[in-house]
Specification:
four-stranded antiparallel sheet, Immunoglobulin-like, 452 residues, 14% helix
């Protein structure tokens, strides 16, 4: 009985193995296919990836690469190597302008391009330009100090502001304006003639004095001022070296009212006088931060009744350097201030561009014109959109564009990519190619499957 069992068992085992052979071959081939399918894409991806190392100042900004969120700075972003399509990187942070650059250069496998985004705070102020027709109206913003139109208000806080213009003989002009960050808002007031008005005929002895009606400069004596609304008005006549003459006058409809002032010489008890002359004329003059008027061609600006002592004078004119000084005023005496205005190195319609590169020493071209080598500050770049390139021997040329607004200081920082940059490689004997590895594995697998 034992002998019979011993002989039967091998036959049954052999039959069982023969029945399982197709299943074993199927499992073996399936495993081989899965191994090849897994190794092929992994090998390809490992040799075709490049990287952007994105940093920002300040840190913690969101990074968007080709429309997809890639993390917060600092972050390393993988991209397809040798891709000829442009890679668009945007860096965003609340309270700062959006930073965006387009990179057209391809990255070698395993290579890395460093990106540094210097974020610019969002502007919280804007500009307001006010003009009147006819010109010369007195302008106030939010009931502040008056300025004579046309006038440009710089660095006004964003939001809604009340603008008022008044002019002798014209109806008041009142509007609300909205100031937007970094933008210029323009307002032109078409003044309407007041119906029912009278006239003032103003003279002085000596002549050549400045006449003010209700605090608004109206010209120099002798003069006739029309379109004055009926009612009581203050007339002030001022001349350097003389005491001010002040008179309240009743103006009647369609009636010419004469005003004559005999000016008295100033005494030691009187205030002092500051007489301002500028070249070119047309400059705005401030005394102790209070607007006092404009210098005119052939006539200096006279500021009377100035308290004796030291005062700060500030003179500004479009496209010229501001002038600031301290003047000493003596009672009853005239203090002359003569200023030759220096042209501004950065006109109001232009800005400055600061360009740096890593490594430094690269040639900078703006709109096709060579502007210097990095690091450099390019002055008087007019507002608008411009193209630029940064070129250095041994590195790929960088090309992009920027847009600048009047008065802006724009910073451009660029990390250049070497022409000889290659992916990281192992030292010594190089690894066989992925296709060769796959072929060897396929051959070995086929051999064992046949033996199975």
């Amino acid at each position: 009985m034992y002998r019979i069992l011993f002989q039967v068992q091998p036959e049954n085992h052999t039959d069982m193995m023969r029945e399982m052979l197709p299943l074993r071959r199927f499992v073996c081939l399936l495993a081989l296919i899965l191994i090849i399918a897994f190794l092929a894409p992994v090998s390809a991806v490992q040799t075709q990836m490049g990287y952007f190392e994105v940093k920002s100042n300040p840190q913690g900004a969101d990074v968007i690469v080709n429309g997809a969120f890639a993390g917060e700075t600092p972050v390393i972003v993988p991209v397809t190597a040798m891709d000829t399509n442009a890679t668009v990187i945007r860096v965003m942070m609340q309270g700062f302008q959006i930073w965006e650059q387009s990179y057209t250069q391809s990255i070698q496998p395993g290579g890395m391009v460093q990106v540094m985004a210097v974020l610019v705070p969002v502007a919280t102020t804007g500009t307001l330009k006010v003009s009147s027709s006819p010109s010369g109206a007195m302008v106030t913003v939010d009931n502040g100090n008056g300025q004579m139109a046309p006038w440009t208000y710089l660095d006004l806080p964003t939001g809604t502001h009340l603008v008022s213009l008044v002019m002798m003989g014209y109806e008041p002009f009142v509007r609300t304006v909205e100031i937007h960050p970094g933008e210029t808002t323009e307002l032109t007031a078409n003044m309407s003639i007041r119906t029912g008005s009278g006239t003032l005929e103003i003279s002085s002895d000596p002549g050549g004095a400045m006449a003010y009606i209700d605090g608004v400069y109206s010209g120099t004596t002798n003069l006739v001022v029309g379109n004055i609304p009926p009612g009581r008005h203050e007339v002030r006549i001022s001349r350097a070296g003389n005491e001010d003459y002040v008179e309240w006058v009743s103006v009647q409809n369609q009636v010419t009212t004469p005003v004559h002032a005999t000016l008295k010489p100033a005494t030691d008890a009187s205030g002092g006088f500051v007489v301002v002359t500028t070249e070119p004329p047309g400059a705005s003059v401030f005394l102790d931060d209070e607007y006092r008027g404009l210098t005119e061609t052939g006539r200096p600006l006279e500021i009377s009744n100035v308290t004796p002592g030291s005062h700060r004078i500030y003179i500004t004119s479009k496209n010229y350097e501001d002038f600031e000084a301290m003047v000493m005023v003596t009672a009853g005496a005239i203090t002359p201030v003569t200023v030759q205005m220096d042209p501004s190195p950065m006109p109001q319609a232009c800005g400055l561009v600061m360009v740096s590169s890593d490594p430094a020493g690269a040639d900078i071209s703006v709109d096709g014109q060579l502007k210097g080598t990095t690091p450099a500050t390019i002055g008087t770049v007019c507002s608008g959109k411009h193209t630029y390139s940064i070129k250095l021997g041994g590195y790929q040329e960088y090309n992009s564009s920027f847009e600048i607004i009047p008065g802006q200081v724009l910073q451009i920082n660029t990390v250049l990519t070497s022409d000889t940059t290659t992916g990281a490689t192992c030292q010594g004997t190089p690894w066989p190619s992925p296709l060769l590895i796959i072929a060897i594995l396929a051959g070995v697998g086929y051999f064992f499957c046949r033996k199975a």
